[in-house]
């Protein structure tokens, strides 16, 4: 997997470290902008003392020209600096999103456990964005501090007392701002949690919209989402109140500091300790302080939200893998011999089974949960609680899951389609180096050729998200064709024809046997048409192998088999 992230602090650190060049450039230019902004009141004070007071027209034009040059420099430095900061922000966001997607799609799995897809999508978008903005906030924070430092130095040169007011008051203000951001951090984390949950529930309901309408469950679904959305709204309002309170308090404290600077400067001018121009500069610098201090208040708020989002990202990235990679490899030429020895997992109990290379095997489980347990072990979504599963004599737990899936493919019953054309969906799992893969033959065997004839653009017809633009039977045939086109040495199919009519199912059964000739194929199904073309069928009853025989023999001698297959 690469780097691991045990804490949100590590996520923030790496997000900044990965963009240090852009942040450094933005901070340098932003600091130049802030220093220039701080010098503007000083230059105005000099104009007053050297040109206005003495009525020196030449000096007036000279200093006005200098001011114009300073403003041009301010505009350019702000523009380029802000661009660098935004670039650092979006690139860090993009990098985090890619890291999250890579972790979710990691062959070892685990990241999706206990999380709905909508929640993961929210973390990969909103939380990644908030962490990315930390780079921009850091750049603006450094720039604001440089502006404050410049302001303090100028005021110290004007009056030690004025400089000390800024130098001592600013750290106190920053410390108070940090304390005020604590409630915002916790409430921001709660806000993102509830927003992610609401997003997940919405995605879940949309995915099952047809089913909900079919069973008349719209009102229950609406009530469920209304409750979830209300919780999310309340969390958002609490976070907004915390942010408003922080902003208001920091603004009030900032106003107090500015008032103190203006008051001290006015008294010094009245006493004759500073000139009129220096007084104007001091008041201008006091007003300038409002900008950097407001920026630092914003930076504190962004850091608080960034820390909360980073913790959520770290939680996903640090999720242990469901299965780990072993140190062994498969033979260069995979024969396709599969052996289950003493396999116990979930409802399965001490299953012993040898599947010969090239065999077409049927598996009938009287309990669907036991079929699911078997599929999870064969696909290595999990390792069995006891016993082993071997491919060509190599235990699956000793293999890298990614390498295993280039040789053994488990095509589950509820496999989704993706946006793209029908053909693109069929060829999605084809390995570029595979010389024997034949998408055309796979589409013919799965009945996709007949489907394409009914579509406006044939196999080039666009498929909407999750294949909703196709009927259930059409989706199932395209998914089956995708599994067949992948051309793996071992293919496990789970109920691939439940949504097609009997005539089509019989045609698919014959085509499946033909296209998989010489390659190991396991059909986990209760379809008589598919079981009839297998070499033999294994009956799993009560989690154990009750019998192994051809389909017709099992129909004749097992009541449990007849109930599962013929009812």
From TrEMBL:
Lineage top rank: taxon: Bacteria
Transmembrane helix among keywords: yes
Keyword Plastid part of the UniProt annotation: no
Membrane topology listed for this record: Multi-pass membrane protein
One function term, GO molecular function aspect: ATP binding
Chain ranges passing through the membrane: 23-48, 60-78, 133-155, 161-180, 248-270
PROSITE patterns linked to this entry: ABC_TM1F, ABC_TRANSPORTER_1, ABC_TRANSPORTER_2
Annotated compartments: Cell membrane
Protein name as catalogued: ABC transporter ATP-binding protein
């Amino acid at each position: 997997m690469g780097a691991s992230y045990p804490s949100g602090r590590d996520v923030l650190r790496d997000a900044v470290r990965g963009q240090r060049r852009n942040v450094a450039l933005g901070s340098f230019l932003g600091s130049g902008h802030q220093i220039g902004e701080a010098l503007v009141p000083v230059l105005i004070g000099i104009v007053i003392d050297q040109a206005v007071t003495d009525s020196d027209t030449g000096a007036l034009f000279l200093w006005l020209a200098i001011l114009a040059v300073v403003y041009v420099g301010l505009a350019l430095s702000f523009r380029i600096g802000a661009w660098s900061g935004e670039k650092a922000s979006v690139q860090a966001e993009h990098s985090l999103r890619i890291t999250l997607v890579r972790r979710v799609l990691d062959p070892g799995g685990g990241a999706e456990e206990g999380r709905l897809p909508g929640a993961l999508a929210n973390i990969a978008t909103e939380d990644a964005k908030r962490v990315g903005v930390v780079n921009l906030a850091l750049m603006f924070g450094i720039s604001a501090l440089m502006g404050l430092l410049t302001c303090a130095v100028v005021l110290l040169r004007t009056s030690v007392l004025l400089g000390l007011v800024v130098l001592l008051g600013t750290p106190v203000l920053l410390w108070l701002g940090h304390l005020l951001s604590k409630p915002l951090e916790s409430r921001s984390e709660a806000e993102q949690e509830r927003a992610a949950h609401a997003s997940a529930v919405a995605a879940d309901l949309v995915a099952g919209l047809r089913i909900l309408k079919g069973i008349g469950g719209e009102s229950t679904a609406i009530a469920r989402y209304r409750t979830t959305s209300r919780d999310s709204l309340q969390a958002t309002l609490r976070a907004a109140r915390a942010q408003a309170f922080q902003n208001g308090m920091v603004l009030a404290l900032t106003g107090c500091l500015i008032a103190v600077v203006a008051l001290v400067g006015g008294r010094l001018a009245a006493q004759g300790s500073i000139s009129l121009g220096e007084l104007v500069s001091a008041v201008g610098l006091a007003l300038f302080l409002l900008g950097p201090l407001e920026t630092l208040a914003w930076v504190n708020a962004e850091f608080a939200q960034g820390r909360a989002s980073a913790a959520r990202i770290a939680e996903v990235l640090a999720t242990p893998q469901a299965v780990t990679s072993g140190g062994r490899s498969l033979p260069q030429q995979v024969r396709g011999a599969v052996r289950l020895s003493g396999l116990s997992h979930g409802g399965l109990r001490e299953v012993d089974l040898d599947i010969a290379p090239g065999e077409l095997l049927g598996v009938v489980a009287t309990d669907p949960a036991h079929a699911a347990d078997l599929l999870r072990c064969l696909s290595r979504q999990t390792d069995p609680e006891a016993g082993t599963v071997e491919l060509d004599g190599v235990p699956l737990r000793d293999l890298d899951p990614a390498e295993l899936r280039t040789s053994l493919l488990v095509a589950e019953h509820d496999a989704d389609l993706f946006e793209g054309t029908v053909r693109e969906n069929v060829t999605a799992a084809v390995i570029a180096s595979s010389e024997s893969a034949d998408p055309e033959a796979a589409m013919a065997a799965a009945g996709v050729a007949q489907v394409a004839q009914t579509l406006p653009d044939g196999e080039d017809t666009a498929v909407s998200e999750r294949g909703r633009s196709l009927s259930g039977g059409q989706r199932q045939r395209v998914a089956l064709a995708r599994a067949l086109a992948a051309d793996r040495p071992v293919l496990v199919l789970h109920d691939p024809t439940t949504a097609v009519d009997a005539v089509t199912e019989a045609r698919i059964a014959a085509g499946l046997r033909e296209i998989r000739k010489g390659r190991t194929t396991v059909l986990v199904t209760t379809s008589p048409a598919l079981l009839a073309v297998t070499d033999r069928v294994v009956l799993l009853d009560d989690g154990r192998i009750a019998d192994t025989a051809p389909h017709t023999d099992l129909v004749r001698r097992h009541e449990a088999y007849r109930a599962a297959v013929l009812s």
